């Protein structure tokens, strides 16, 4: 009975980790779908009846739209090459920040204010393209972290069961003080390395309760 409880507890913990990966993936996918609904409908100018409004819209607005299209096309091309790197999105975000600053400065020369906001029918607040890219990048990073962790989950489960089996077979599990399992959430190191979510046990004098085995 005691052995069955040890196995059930360990498998339950690993199962919870898998559920967290799935939930994280679904949440990020849902948010990415929401962000995909945003579109740039127009470039705005104030005051709209400014004497130089037409010239400003033609030169500044037209220039901004061309820059934006080139930046997004370049980003899409790099992302289509595959991989999980979000560097192309970060590069595009920085270029769009420069483009948005250029649009504002260009309009000033005409004595006006200009801005370009993306809108979605399902969202209350519009946002600049640079902010839209920032949110896309963060959600994509979260999705990749969760997907990478989930893809290895079954392998970790097999390793967990094998380690428990070795401990039970050798009789080395300490039932008086069962190992404490702790789930470490996925995280991103400063150097950009993705560390998967994982389970770990508290240090003790036995290796048979380690999730990776002896």
Q: What class would the helix/strand composition place it in?
A: alpha+beta
Q: What ranges have pLDDT less than 50 throughout 5 or more consecutive residues?
A: 1-6
Radius of gyration: 26 Å
Q: What is the β-strand count?
A: 6
Provide the β-strand percentage band.
5-15%
Describe this structure in words.
The chain is α+β, with helices and mostly antiparallel strands. 58% of the residues lie in helices and 13% in strands. It has five helices and six strands. The chain has helices at residues 2-35, 53-79, 87-108, 129-151, 153-170, and strands at 39-46, 113-119, 181-184, 187-188, 194-195, 198-201. The strands form three sheets. Strands 1-2 form a two-stranded antiparallel ribbon. It has a two-stranded antiparallel sheet with strand order 3-6. Strands 4-5 form a two-stranded antiparallel ribbon. Helix 1 packs antiparallel against helix 4, helix 1 packs antiparallel against helix 5 (153-170) and helix 3 packs antiparallel against helix 4 (129-151). The longest helix has 34 residues, at 2-35. The model is unreliable at 1-6 (pLDDT under 50).
Provide keyphrases for this structure.
214 residues; alpha+beta; 2 domains; two-stranded antiparallel sheet; 6 strands; 13% strand; elongated; disordered N terminus
């Amino acid at each position: 009975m005691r052995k069955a409880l040890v196995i059930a507890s360990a498998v339950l913990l690993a199962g919870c980790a898998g559920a967290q990966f799935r939930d994280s993936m679904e949440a990020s996918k849902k948010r990415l779908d929401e962000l995909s609904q945003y579109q740039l409908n127009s470039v705005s100018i104030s005051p709209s009846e400014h004497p130089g409004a037409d010239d400003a819209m033609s030169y500044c607005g037209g220039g901004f739209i061309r820059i934006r299209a080139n930046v997004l096309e370049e980003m899409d091309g790099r992302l289509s090459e595959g991989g999980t790197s979000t560097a192309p999105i970060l590069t595009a975000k920085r270029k769009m920040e420069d483009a948005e600053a250029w649009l504002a400065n260009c309009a000033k020369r005409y004595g006006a204010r200009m801005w370009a906001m993306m809108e979605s029918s399902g969202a209350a607040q519009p946002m600049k393209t640079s902010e839209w890219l920032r949110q896309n990048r963060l959600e994509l990073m979260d999705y990749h972290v969760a997907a990478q962790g989930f893809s290895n989950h079954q392998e970790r489960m097999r390793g967990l069961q094998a380690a428990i089996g070795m401990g039970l077979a050798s009789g080395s599990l300490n039932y008086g003080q069962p190992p404490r399992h702790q789930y470490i959430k996925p995280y991103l190191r400063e150097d950009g390395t993705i560390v998967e979510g994982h389970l770990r046990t508290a240090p003790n004098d036995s290796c048979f309760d380690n999730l990776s085995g002896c």
